[in-house]
């Protein structure tokens, strides 16, 4: 009886192992959801929808796009932190949401709350101004701001406000901070001359040919692809790397074999002409492929850098 019981248990265990293996090999066996933490029509959404189409072809299942805007991408990440479907739902968004977001406001997640499938694009954020200003480069702007206390700056995010306050402290300048609701709110103020300079997450790319929105400084780790004359913050003497990566994140309980399949689809997408066209030619961002471990390490380093800046500043402003 003991031998029969052992054999029966072994058969059941083996069958379960085979079944589990088959389920893993069959991933995905149903449609997936790509959650984007920004509104429809923005550059992340436009890029994400093309990415979803390409991924669906490689995975053999539809990849449905769901917009969950709010809190600078934080709403989508809060939902992902509570998600338990092991890879069928993932977030495509900006790394800033997971690096700086938890430092600025209370969240139910931090940089170690997720697994990172891959990075696919390098962000191209910038500090911009308008045409026909009294300055034509960053150093001239700083001199202008020193001579004109209350020089206006249009902010969009807690992140760029931290950056500009850090710079203002380093340079000894007094700025008037003007809150705006995204690129659509910033652009009219810059183009009309109502604001002197501003943060742009990508809106400036639409003015690359007309020259109506000159770039003063790159907020990427390297110079911007479409604006190679604009220096980086490090080149300007500021000890900070604010570069952003567009990444795909999954719940922490996602099995590694599922992450590997998603990563394969993402790597294929970065070589697909449709994704390259929308990313490099339309929104003017370089396509890259960074594996998940590399992304995670980079984001951890950025968190450490931001924490040091916040401590140096004595905390974030309200």
From TrEMBL:
Keywords: Signal. The keyword rRNA processing does not apply. Coiled coil: none annotated. SUPFAM superfamilies: Periplasmic binding protein-like II. InterPro entries: BUG, Bug_dom1. Gene3D superfamilies: Bordetella uptake gene, domain 1, Periplasmic binding protein-like II. The keyword Signal applies. Residues 1-24 form the signal peptide. Belongs to the UPF0065 (bug) family. This is Tricarboxylate transport protein TctC.
